[in-house]
Amino acid sequence: MKEIKELSGEELCRLVVHGMLEKKATNIVVMDLRNVKNAITDYFVICSGNTDTQIDAIATSVDEEVFKGSKMNPWHQEGKQNREWILLDYVDVVVHVFRKDRRKFYDLESLWGDAETTIIEESVEPEAPQLMYFED
After folding, report:
1. Model-level pTM?
2. Buried b (16+ CB within 10 A) or exposed e, 58-92
3. Is there a contact between 15 and 128 (Cβ–Cβ < 8 Å)?
4. DSSP string, 59-89
5. First CA to last CA across the chain, in angstroms?
6. 9-120 has which CATH code?
């Protein structure tokens, strides 16, 4: 039986970001929702891809990285069929992989504007996810 490794929300976010960077996701944002009233999770990690194929690859990479680091599968996932907006729900961290045009349409960053936001530099090497820090 595979033992699930308990990860903090920050550690899980690092694995998610690493998976995104592996497939050249763009505009990666980590939103800390812990101090937002009525938030449905602790963190959103949002990114964009250019094509249906790329967003599918990004979501698969995130799933693989999280599983490698924790033996955890998403509690829930949506959007794998239409590949415009793929959601991976890890309970404390919800991952949103958008096709660029869909991300602009839904504009989650504005909807959850009270969240502390960390923008991930795309030049960060995928081999070094520990370089991500949460700041005010």
Report:
1. 0.85
2. bbbbbbebbbebbebebeeeebeeebbbbbbbbeb
3. no
4. HHHHHHHHHHHH----SEEE-TTT-SEEEEE
5. 40
6. 3.30.460.10
Structure tokens at 75: 């509690």
Q: Are 89 and 35 in contact (CB under 8 A)?
A: no
Nearest to 20 by CA among 42, 47, 44, 43: 47
H or E element, residue 13: helix 9-22
pLDDT at 134 over 50: no
Strand bridging mode 93-99 / 43-49:
parallel
Taking only the tens place, the pLDDT of each residue in 18-32 is 999 999 999 999 999
